[in-house]
Structures are given as structure tokens and as C-alpha cells.
Amino acid sequence: MTIPLLDPSAVWPTLGVTLFFLGAGFAVGLIHFSLLRKTADAVTAGLVSRPILQTMARFAITIAALYLASRSGATALLAAALGLVAARALALRPFRKGAQ
Q: What global pTM score does this model have?
């Protein structure tokens, strides 16, 4: 009898899926926050329809990615969310006070 937590055949596929969704969440986060920047630029330029479409696309992409991650399990969903948070930190880095 093997203990499931110590069985390498049970751990490695889960680790692979987790790392995949971590990377996918990071990529989706970069897309999300770059579209957010473009949406803000479009709003300040006085455009109306482009920001609405960009916002809808941004949310559709993010929701679809998180839904796919949730279908793969809680660990995959948490990894994707962590990737999104990491991408957010990277996207907001130039806007911090004191940034050079």
C-alpha cells in the first residue's frame, strides 16, 4: 500500500499542471493589465466604444482562463490566481512612488 502524498506518480502530474497554470495565469495577467492600460488611455483620449469593447475582452479572457483552471482543480486555480497577482505586481511596478 502506498501513501498518496508520497507516491511520485501522483505528485509529478499535479506539479506539472500547477506550474502550467502558474505560467498561464501570469500570461493572462500580462494581457489583462496591458489591456487595462490601453483602456485607460482610450478613456482619457475621449473614446467611447473602444474602452467598452476592451473591458469586455479583458474580462472574457480572464474569466475563461480562471474557469479552465478551476476545471483542473483547486491547486490549478490557486496557481493561476497567483500568476495573475504576480503579473499585476510586474505591470504596476513602473507606477510606484519613488520608481526611477
A: 0.82
